[in-house]
Design a protein that fits this description.
CATH topology of one domain: Nucleotidyltransferase, domain 5
Helix content: 25-40%
Radius of gyration: 20 Å
Strand content: 15-25%
Strand order of the largest sheet: 3-2-1-4-7-13
Largest sheet: 6 strands, mixed
Low-confidence stretches: 1-26
Number of helices: 15
Mean pLDDT: 91
Length: 409
């Protein structure tokens, strides 16, 4: 089966513990799940098709990216930052649902059919904690269900929040399945928000630990848009930041913010690290735009390093995924703050396409929901007890899928 990526290249063979992720499985007890992820960067939809057995990380059959239109990206970011009426939220929900439906149909046509779709949705608000804590991802599951006819698994984060968890990050158990090794390993996803997973060595002490460390690309993208008058969506490759000099005194003040001092479990979103914060910081900035971007880049790198040193037992290597892994300025800054730790692009070492990883994880999470498996995430999200993550909207083939699930489990 052809593998379609952003570059159109054929997939590398995955070298994760000898498990191939590039060939489809012919085993009868497999499910084909289409995972869909749109993150806090709101740049578009990552889609990955997995063939999954009852255990293990599954096999990646293909990956695609569908970019948001400029107007949809702007609407999603505006909705995440400002007040929104019920009517506006409902219309955006439908609009996003249609975008997911188009992306799903294109992926199914090019990558092959699926038994179900697991999609994350676009985060509108993320404010966990306390009796009235909540997290809200929008994007109409009904639009996706009617367009595809398939069973849809969605709304993954809400049950964890009700169980006292942060609702994020949810992908670390999948990281452990893919990347667990004889020695401890740290995995970093640099999307809009940076989240860190510490995986204990096989047979070693400690338990899986994961949390959001703070900003990933969110502040950098926001600054590039602000400083360019909206002409740029990002500082591509960190080229602008590379021309500047970080302000170490300002950086030290930023690193004293409460979020960076708070121990995990913790999660973040654009409410903490979004365009309003960029505007506030720029208004009081006395240096050049390049210096501003350089210092924001240093903040992202330093906050990751601080979290790894302070809140985990440490690891000899850090595998970096997500859009930030393609920013050489940010990667070099990370390495400078993590002396003695090998900072590597995870895609190069593992063969797992960097931008496909979270979509793959949500395909796996969708399968766990369909199988009725409660996931123990106490050491990750802080949940009080294991819960089943996700809600199911049955599709046209639901009776047959139920029968297959009875054998799959």
């Amino acid at each position: 089966m052809a593998f379609t990526s952003r570059s159109g290249a054929e997939p590398p063979t995955c070298r994760c513990q000898g498990r191939s992720l590039s060939a489809a499985s012919s085993a009868p007890n497999t499910l084909r799940i289409l995972g869909m992820m749109s993150g806090t960067s709101a740049d578009g939809i990552d889609v990955a098709l997995l063939s999954l057995g009852p255990s293990g990380p599954g096999q990646l059959l293909g990956y695609r990216h569908s970019a948001y239109s400029p107007s949809l990206r702007e609407a999603s970011l505006d909705a995440a930052h400002g007040p929104l009426s019920v009517e506006e939220a409902a219309r955006l929900d439908r609009r996003l649902g249609r975008a997911y439906a188009r992306a799903a149909l294109q992926a199914l046509e090019r990558l092959g059919q699926a038994d179900a779709i697991a999609f994350h949705g676009q985060t509108l608000r993320h404010q966990p904690g306390g009796e009235e804590g909540f997290t809200l991802q929008i994007g109409s599951a009904a639009e996706l269900a009617l367009a595809s006819g398939l069973t849809i698994v969605h709304n993954f984060r809400a049950a964890d929040v009700v169980a006292g968890g942060q609702g994020a990050p949810l992908v670390p158990p999948y990281h452990q399945l893919l990347f667990g090794a004889s020695e401890p390993r740290a995995v970093l996803n640099l999307g809009g928000i940076a989240n860190l997973t510490w995986i204990p060595g096989q047979g070693g002490a400690g338990s899986l630990c994961a949390f959001d460390t703070g900003p990933g690309n969110a502040l950098l993208d926001g600054a590039a848009a602000l400083l360019s008058g909206g002409r740029l969506l990002q500082d591509r490759g960190g080229a602008w930041a590379a021309r500047g000099q970080e302000d170490t005194r300002q950086l030290a003040r930023w690193l004293s913010w409460d979020f960076f001092q708070k121990p995990p479990p913790k999660s973040a979103g654009r409410a903490q690290f979004g365009a309003p914060l960029v505007s506030e910081l720029w208004r009081s900035w006395a240096g050049s735009p390049a210096d501003f971007l350089a210092t924001l880049t240093a903040l992202t790198a330093a906050s990751v390093a601080l979290a790894l040193r302070r809140w985990t037992p440490g690891a000899p290597s850090l595998w970096v995924f997500g859009g930030g892994a393609e920013n050489p300025t940010l990667m070099a800054k990370l390495a400078s703050y993590l002396d003695g730790v090998a900072v590597e692009r995870g895609a190069r070492l593992s063969g797992v396409p960097s931008q496909a990883l979270e979509a793959m994880a949500f395909a796996w999470l969708g399968a766990q929901c369909l199988a009725g498996r409660a996931l123990p995430l106490g050491s990750v999200t802080g949940q009080s007890r294991p819960v089943i993550l996700g809600e199911v909207l049955p599709g046209r083939a639901w009776p047959g899928l139920l029968e297959r699930l009875s054998r799959w489990r």
